[in-house]
Write a structure and sequence with these properties.
Elements: H1 2-28, H2 35-57, H3 64-97, H4 99-105, H5 110-120, H6 129-140, H7 142-175, H8 178-188, H9 192-201, H10 207-216, H11 221-240, H12 242-249, H13 253-292
Helix pairs in contact: 1-2, 1-3, 2-3, 3-4, 4-5, 4-6, 5-6, 5-7, 6-7, 6-11, 7-10, 7-11, 8-10, 9-11, 12-13
Organism: Gottfriedia solisilvae
Transmembrane segments: 12-30, 36-57, 69-88, 108-127, 139-164, 194-217, 224-244, 256-274
Domain VTT: 127-244
């Protein structure tokens, strides 16, 4: 009996924490939301809490799990609304003032802000690296821009990969368009490693599509992370130093990115071709040796 009461108290404590967190987020992170929606959310949370009390008093504690799920759903809805609100707000500001200006205006937290932007890019932030990395390097410097851009992007890619791997197709289909996934599968079906590397370097598809496609198609994590690290090291360094290189070669940033992508692609394809030639040559030598014996 005592253990049962302790378990009930623990369960109620979890409910109170979820409810308190939901109300805190609602009133502190959504200042512009219409009051009626705040009231609806708040009354819903309070109603569930009263239901918790009724279930405990009526000794019907088995249903507490259902009320916890209900509270969790309300909390999740609030978190989603917050994400949509702040991402939209950020995109509007980025469009109006540019990412570079946003980083300058928040110089004290510019590194953290830039890292967060790069981290969210492969997950939920629809901004190309060709926009964010040059802006970051202009404020932080080329080296730090490349470093934080690389670390943020890779971490975001890993998170998105595991979201796809764990969440599966049902969850992912709600985040991205089905036609993009089909495009990915068409690109990758022939030669997984080569195509993945090229897609990360050349902006054929957004990174989130590549991560999701890799996660769903069960590409091994070791191979995927190796490809991502290599590709992002190239793109982060290239884009972070693009301003300097563009001036050096009298090219625009876009022209430099295109030219560099072509060069990287040619080098990569040549390395694959040479590797195949060497493999073929070795096979012929083995065959000739076996014939001689």
């Amino acid at each position: 009996m005592r253990n049962k009461n302790i378990n009930i108290m623990k369960e109620l404590f979890i409910h109170i924490v979820i409810a308190s967190l939901a109300i805190y987020l609602l009133f502190n992170f959504l200042p512009t939301i219409v009051t009626v929606y705040k009231v609806i959310f708040t009354l819903t949370i309070i109603g569930i809490c009263f239901l918790d009390a009724y279930l405990v008093l009526s000794n019907n504690t088995k249903l507490l799990k259902l009320t916890k799920i209900a509270l969790s759903i309300v909390l999740l809805c609030i978190v989603i609304v917050i994400l949509i609100y702040y991402i939209t707000k950020f995109l509007v500001f980025a469009d109006m003032y540019g990412i570079e200006q946003i980083l300058i205006d928040h110089k004290s937290i510019a590194k953290l802000l830039f890292f967060s932007i790069c981290f969210l890019q492969p997950i939920i932030l629809p901004l190309p690296e060709a926009v964010t990395l040059p802006a970051g390097s202009a404020v932080l410097g080329s080296f730090e821009g490349a470093l934080f851009g690389f670390l943020g992007s890779v971490l975001g890619i890993i998170v998105m990969y595991f979201i796809a791997r764990i969440g599966g197709l049902k969850l992912v289909s709600k985040l991205i368009k089905e036609k993009h996934l089909k495009s990915y599968q068409e690109y990758v079906s022939k030669n997984e490693t080569i195509i993945l590397t090229l897609m990360f370097i050349i902006p054929i598809l957004p990174d989130e599509i590549i991560c999701v496609g890799a996660g769903i198609s069960k590409v091994s994590f070791k191979r995927f992370i190796f490809i991502a690290l290599l590709a992002k090291l190239v793109t982060s360094s290239l884009l972070a130093y693009s301003v300097y290189l563009a001036k050096l070669f009298s090219l625009s940033t876009t022209q430099l990115v295109i030219a560099s992508s072509i060069i990287v692609t040619i080098i990569f394809l040549l390395s694959i071709f040479i590797k195949k030639l060497l493999k073929k040559s070795n096979s012929e030598e083995v065959y000739m040796t076996s014939q001689g014996d």
